[in-house]
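FW: tagging you since you asked about this chain on Friday. Here's the raw sequence from the shared folder, copied in full. Didn't touch anything.
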Amino acid sequence: MVKGVRVYELGGPEVLKYEDVEVGEPGEGEVRVKIDAIGLNFIDVYFRTGVYKADLPFILGREAVGVVTAVGPGLTGRKVGDRVAYAGNPMGSYCEEMVLPANVLVSVPDAVDSITAAAVMLKGMTAQFLLRRCFKVEPGHTILIHAAAGGVGSLLCQWANALGAVVIGCVSNKEKAAQAVEDGCHHVIIYKEQDFVERVKDITDGKGVQVVYDSVGKDTFQGSLACLSLRGYMVCYGQSSGVIGPVPLSALAAKSIFLTRPSMMHYTTTRDELLSTAGELFAEVASGVLKVRVNQTYPLSQVAQAHADLEARKTTGSTVLLPDSV
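HL: got it, structure written out here
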């Protein structure tokens, strides 16, 4: 038996139960992994609260880094001792050990430590597909990033700056504004003090931005639409403030706006896509283009506090859970 975090009912952080969990042996095409570090992501909150659906009970978590301790029968390409990481499916990474399909795992370069890798896998691959494929950011583009000091937002700001874009970041306070500047934002808007729509109009001389990356959802959606230029891209990749209501097509017609609600899992559906996405990400981290801000770590046994802090927007950058056995 190992320790893990299971959810029996939907609700607040208090529904997270730290308890003994049975982990079986790997079958065909699988490996068993001893987990060294676990990424905390807002998608975990969505599953805990029922915004995203999963059959109860379930073990939470969709991102981890660890070491292979056993290999299933007949499997080649993986061996005991390999440092590996995964992000996305299957759910269940809030655990000291887990059995995973070998085809979801990627090797972790020696230049990237386990905590950094756990902090960056899901968020970093999300940043990669958002910037490189969902909307291809190029030099001269002006873009707006909400939650610019968050885990994904921090990486989006750094990467977009490196790609030559003019980066506008939206944050909630002065401390987060300072981080956003360090991460490459050319303009920072503190939305509690300024109307972000009006500031974007001022910054762009009324032209608007080519793309908005919005993980906030309900509270910012209409304003984000107003910030877009003609044929702009509205990329809604999260909903931390709540679910966006129905959107009439007429709301997009005035500027011929493109609207998408993408998922990283849909951009890494093949093994080649996964390896390409993770490979580019790790290369940017290893070269120093991306600085991964692991600003909080919590023991796995204190996962409820970690969730509470994330939802209260007390965290910045990335948060990592560490198995108490590590």
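FW: The mean pLDDT is 95.
HL: agreed, and The chain has two domains: 2-121+271-322, 139-261.
FW: great, closing this out.
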